[in-house]
Amino acid sequence: MNRIDRYIGNSVLWSFLIVAVVLLGLDFALTFIEQIKKVNDNYTLQSLLQVILYRLPGKLAEYIPIASLIGTLMGLGTLAATSELTVMRAAGMPIWRIGFAACQPILVVSLLGMGISEFVAPKAEQKANLIEKFKDQETGAFSLSGGVWLKADNNFVYIDAADDTGTLYGIEIFAPNQQQGLQQLAFTKSATTAKHLQGSTWQLNDVTETFFFPDRIETKSTPHAEWNVSITPENLFLASQDPETLSLSQLLNYQIYLRQEKLDASQYELEFWITALRPVASLALVLVALSSVFGPLRSSTMGGRIFSGVLIGLAFQNALNLFGRMSVAVSFPPIIGVSIPIIICLLAGIILVRRRG
Question: Which domain does 84 fall in, by range?
Answer without folding.
Answer: 2-136+265-356
